[in-house]
């Protein structure tokens, strides 16, 4: 399979709510939540994409050739690329019920495809228990190779879910703390809420696993995440799905990097679509990226093979971008790469 075939397949899927646009920029699907879009005006999703595109990079190829190395170690595990699949939950409500791809089948494509490409997939959670347990079943079937992302439920519920993740043998666990206001969950009888530092500390100290807080958008939020004892954060506005008119994730990244001061790992997501985008955010201080919606297209268009193909495609683009900007390793990608 090649990428063109993958896109062709995805476009033909009956009832697929994603339009498979040439550029996944949030314009065609604005306001479609449930669905693949950004909330209300859709501007937070659109801005994530637009602000990344405004950043330009410095080309320089006068240097002694080196072989480009995109590998890294994160939370004690080696990865081929700093590129990970973001958690996507609720496949039927968000992407339609005609195609038969539920949370189990989607996660199977993501977990297996990322594993084959030498990276890892995050999995989601949601209104129904199976949105958490079915992806976890896939992770278990793959020797624990996945990172479950738990919603900010009541304490006992979160701890129960962490225990299930531990049993599955995962290398880390995450919480999308920015799902705190999801009314749809409350309507389904599964309330989520914001959590103070003390409650997060209690959760994080209940596990030996590295804990990642996803949905940090301010320096203050990053400082509070540091206090909780988290090992990492994801700078994320949930792909613009939880609050309209937030800034783009790439806009807040530099102040968050300064606040963290190297004391936690920093991942980022929102509108990252190319290997060059990956280079840009690494140059601004991120350790790695999560990509959301394009992985849905890859999984629908080519299952695990599609996910592997897509990950390698972005990885190779990153390699090219590093070669063209004189970066032999991820550590060499510094702010000098950014055109000021
Ligand atoms: C349909 C859909 C469902 C999502 N479900 C979850 C989820 O269950 N947990 C979570 O942490 N984030 C969830 N997200 C947010 C993504 O993990 C990610 O933050 C976002 O999609 C990144 O932006 P991008 O899609 O522009 O790459 C979801 C996003 C979409 C589009």
UniProtKB/TrEMBL annotation:
The active site is at 238 (proton acceptor). This is L-lactate oxidase. The lineage of its organism: Bacteria, Bacillati, Bacillota, Clostridia, Peptostreptococcales. Gene3D superfamilies: Aldolase class I. It catalyses: (S)-lactate + O2 = pyruvate + H2O2. Keywords: Flavoprotein, FMN, Oxidoreductase. Its cofactor is FMN. GO terms for molecular function: FMN binding; oxidoreductase activity. FMN binds at residues 214, 236, 269-273, 292-293. It comes from the Bacteria. It holds the Pfam family FMN_dh. Belongs to the FMN-dependent alpha-hydroxy acid dehydrogenase family. Residues 1-340 form the FMN hydroxy acid dehydrogenase domain. SUPFAM superfamilies: FMN-linked oxidoreductases. Glyoxylate binds at residues 238, 241.
